[in-house]
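Section 3.1: Structural characterization of target chains.
Under the original work plan, the team committed to producing a structural model for every single-chain target entering the pipeline before any wet-lab resources were allocated. The record below documents one such target. The sequence was received from the expression subgroup and is listed exactly as submitted; it comprises 358 residues.
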Amino acid sequence: MNTKPSLFLESHHLKNPYFGFGQYNYHLIKALHSLDINDIDITLNVADPAKWEKKFGNTYQYKKYRSIYRYPVAHIRKKYDLWHSMNQNTKIEPYHNIPYLLTVHNITYIKNPDSYMEEEMHQRFQRKIDRSQAITYISEFAKTSTHEFFKVPNVPEYVIHNGNPITDITISDTYSPKSKLNSPFLFSIGEFAERKNFKSLVRMLMNIPKMNLVIAGKNNTQEAQEIRDLIKKNNLNNRVLLPGRVSEEDKQWYYKNCEAFVFPSLREGFGLPLIEAMRFAKPIFTSNNTSLPEIGGTIAQYWEHYEPEYMANIVVKGIEKIKANQSLFKEQSIIRANSFNWENAASSYLNVYNSILK
């Protein structure tokens, strides 16, 4: 008779490997796979069970994800000993009132401070908080902002930073992507959404005439079209490259060969690209808001606002400053990048699982 406790990971975002939730799910599950978890039966909720069983074998059990699970009448009815909601926005929930762990990445942007709790997405988030036996946050900022806008019960809370998915630089010196610009160039990456604030980079570039710019990421959005129009209007077509989603090899090439990494995001629950850029010991310029100072620490340099000439001066002077102390900066940058470790994160989550299960 199987007496091991059962854990359900609501992990259906594994089907979105190019997005933040998908990256988080994949790297945490991969790291858990490397640990000794024989004393817990863990089930993954996945769209393609055969694919993930081939990768992870019998470390996990696999439940096929179906979109109908989003509806209350079809919520999953098996009584697991613990349910981990790995995404605070998911509508997939257990049918029964069972032990529940919630991971908060960031709170949905509060557009209307006086009436936000009238919105269904915020009401759903509050219900998830209310049913939780424990809550994990991927940053201190995610924790403080949750407490600012929502009612958090008196339950155990933990801040567990994400790890750096780029632990080893795997591309060869001869590798080259199909889409590239002449050096020197600045690099950024992310979905083309308004909160990423990529337009500010295009405007900034007009004040750095000898520099080019690459922005990678999903670019079939309205925001991306507006950025293309801005590029065309300012005759920057030969200086700005938007390659779209890129392979792991191409991403590493851009990090390795860029002059600096630039990330002017308005809102981030964590800011994973910062620690990827740290691994390549690149100068980092980012926004001084939300979680970004927490992740960037003293390695990154910060914009207080987004006036183009001001941003450009910060970048030009910042690159010169780092070049004057290149060896020390490289050492400190890689040390900080390595401090964000998925194995450590997985061990922390395993401790949380065991604390609830016991």
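The two ends are 19 Å apart (CA to CA).
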